[in-house]
Structure formats: structure tokens, C-alpha cells
Design a protein that fits this description.
- This is RNA-directed DNA polymerase from mobile element jockey.
- Keywords: Nucleotidyltransferase, RNA-directed DNA polymerase, Transferase.
- GO terms for molecular function: RNA-directed DNA polymerase activity.
- The chain has one domain.
- It contains five helices and no strands.
């Protein structure tokens, strides 16, 4: 996937879509059962920025902030939000199947 994600002849939108379709599902496998601490959240956000830097060919030694990288990629942070959404959906399914009564 490196050759596709770093290819300058492919538009950034297509490369972001490839990242979303092929890389993120592997990264988030089983995320419904994860316990996300602040440390894990920071690592997930760093991973998301790392992917964008690789796609845009921005070395880590370049003095560009994460916000600038996000602006260049025309993207917002979404990885942690997606994981939280999946966890909430999974909890709803578990509660429905088990027929739990909280009250």
C-alpha cells in the first residue's frame, strides 16, 4: 500500500479513501472491546497524523505542526471518534441481545 499512498500522481482524496478503506479497518480490528485511556488515545491520534505525513511526504523533521498537516490533507481527526461510535453501537447491540434492564 505504500506505493499507492505515497504516489503523487494519485489525488490526495483518492489516497485518503484508500487509507480509509484498506488501512483503518485493520488498525481498528476489535476496537469495540478496547479500553481507551488518554495514553492510547494519544497514540491513535499520532498514528493518524503519521499516516497523513507519509501520504503527503512530509518528514517528521520538517517543522510542520499536526494542525498544518491536517489542513494540507483537508482532513479532520476522526479515528478516535469512529472508534467511540463503534463502541457505542456495539454496546447497544449487546444490551439489546441480553435484554438488560438498567433501571
Amino acid at each position: 500500500m505504500k506505493t499507492i499512498l505515497t504516489n503523487k500522481h494519485i489525488s490526495i482524496e483518492t489516497r485518503k479513501r484508500a487509507l480509509q478503506c484498506y488501512i483503518e479497518p485493520v488498525l481498528m480490528y476489535g476496537c469495540e472491546a478496547w479500553t481507551i485511556s488518554k495514553q492510547v488515545q494519544n497514540k491513535l491520534e499520532a498514528t493518524e497524523i503519521w499516516f497523513l505525513r507519509r501520504m503527503l511526504r512530509i518528514p517528521w523533521t520538517a517543522k510542520k505542526t499536526n494542525e498544518r498537516v491536517l489542513n494540507e490533507a483537508n482532513k479532520r481527526r476522526s479515528l478516535v471518534r469512529t472508534i467511540r461510535k463503534r463502541q457505542a453501537t456495539f454496546l447497544g447491540h449487546v444490551m439489546k441481545e441480553e435484554n438488560w434492564n438498567i433501571w
